């Protein structure tokens, strides 16, 4: 296949075309380096400039205060499921978890291997189709932290704003909506995201952490698992994922220079998501949205069709329209359209028009 499809993959996911073109153009010789980004030392001047620019871009896009460290780690978000309790809940302290989907549940399961972890809310009974109202939160005021997943990638439910936790540090898995809108970083104790959905390729995970919390990292933790060691060494304690950080730098350049910042990105994301939810609402008996309307995700639009046969037909015909990777996760079924930052409006318009025609022909 030589044509690029509209790629609705949940992750690794579509990257902006100008970023891919730049990677291609610089692949043999990174300007000023005399070699490929794949061939230079993480301690070389050109790479030092790249990692510094990646951090500066994140700090500028998200207005990250100086009181926060920005770390570039490996191991994906799943390693964070373990590092968070290891570092932030030392000495058997208990942590709270909001479970609004598959990933929050996985984070809880990993935390329980490290120490006590409580469920402060769960929507498991309704197959994770909703979010808590403030009065439904059963918070422990002495919790070491409260962990939640701001966008559940599989179910397609998303918090529009952060839950209120009082003095308990808020820990957020932002893997699947990182950089989709501006944030007030001061609300968080720690926010993390693997890059392969909205920020770059697989291989790097960004951790933004309040420096006060670094004091909790015990000296006897294994070195790689200790946030303080990474912060003290500017993410260069060991060899970082140099190529992934380079691509993240290019993606954040694109967000700043081509898109014009996260306010603009957010407007575009809302416009794209609205187009798809409008079609769901126009054919409610045919396209059954998984998420309750009040907590629909701007990133992952999830819905079912009336039968498995129609779902298979939808996927096959979508492919003929250049619309790829729309199959939903098996735990939810149906269709999932992941429309991260890099999905062009044109791709969403093509999907919306296809959905409209498909419903008219098959409802
Ligand atoms: N959290 C969320 C919300 C995710 O979507 C994913 C990946 N799909 C993960 C965690 C796990 O990330 P990784 O595969 O990088 O460990």
From TrEMBL:
Binds 1 pyridoxal phosphate per subunit. Its EC number is 2.6.1.52. The keyword Amino-acid biosynthesis applies. PANTHER family: PHOSPHOSERINE AMINOTRANSFERASE (PTHR43247:SF1). It comes from the Bacteria. It comes from Pirellulimonas nuda. One of its GO terms (molecular function) is pyridoxal phosphate binding. GO terms for biological process: L-serine biosynthetic process; pyridoxine biosynthetic process. This is Phosphoserine aminotransferase.
